[in-house]
Amino acid sequence: MASITYTATRELVSSSPQLIITDLVKCGRVQRSEGREHTALGGYTESVLFRIDSEWHITAKAFAPDQLPYWREFAASCGNGELFTLDLSDIAGGSSGPFGARLKRNSYKESRYEHFWFQASFIAVEA
């Protein structure tokens, strides 16, 4: 089970737990690097690395429609780069403990699953 702890600031739901505990269908880690590379006329290559980001591609297990407002509150409250805590320590291949993360811009998606259920997916970047 994964847990997401956030501070609700937008699209507030009354009696919001500000904590989502869910099973995951997909949880994969990818490292993305930002940099620049230049090859001189002599054949020498110069590389400049700006940063390496660790991204977690997460898809939650299907959930009932009554949970959808809480997921939307999470997406709205963290969609502008706000920090939240993600704990994947109970998952094989997950993190060793809770860590701070940010939602990658425009990465949150929700979709229908078998006509009645919903599924949420997003990309979390370790902060």
Protein architecture, described:
Helix content is 9%, strand content 50%. The chain is mostly beta strands and 127 residues long.
Give a short summary of the structure:
The chain is mostly beta strands and 127 residues long. Helices cover 9% and strands 50% of the residues.
Mean pLDDT: 91
Largest sheet composition: 8 strands, antiparallel
Helix-residue proportion? under 10%
Structural class: mainly beta
Low-confidence stretches: none
Order of helices and strands: EEEEHEEEE
Radius of gyration over all CA atoms, rounded: 18 Å
Count, helices: 1
Strand-residue fraction? over 45%
Termini gap: 21 Å
Secondary structure: number of strands: 8
What overall geometry do the principal axes of the alpha carbons give? Answer: elongated
Keywords, please?
single chain, 127 residues, mainly beta, 8-stranded antiparallel beta sheet, 1 helix, 9% helix, elongated
Secondary-structure blueprint:
Elements: E1 2-5, E2 19-22, E3 24-39, E4 45-60, H1 68-78, E5 84-87, E6 99-103, E7 109-113, E8 117-126
Antiparallel strand pairs: 1-2, 1-5, 3-4, 4-8, 5-6, 6-8, 7-8
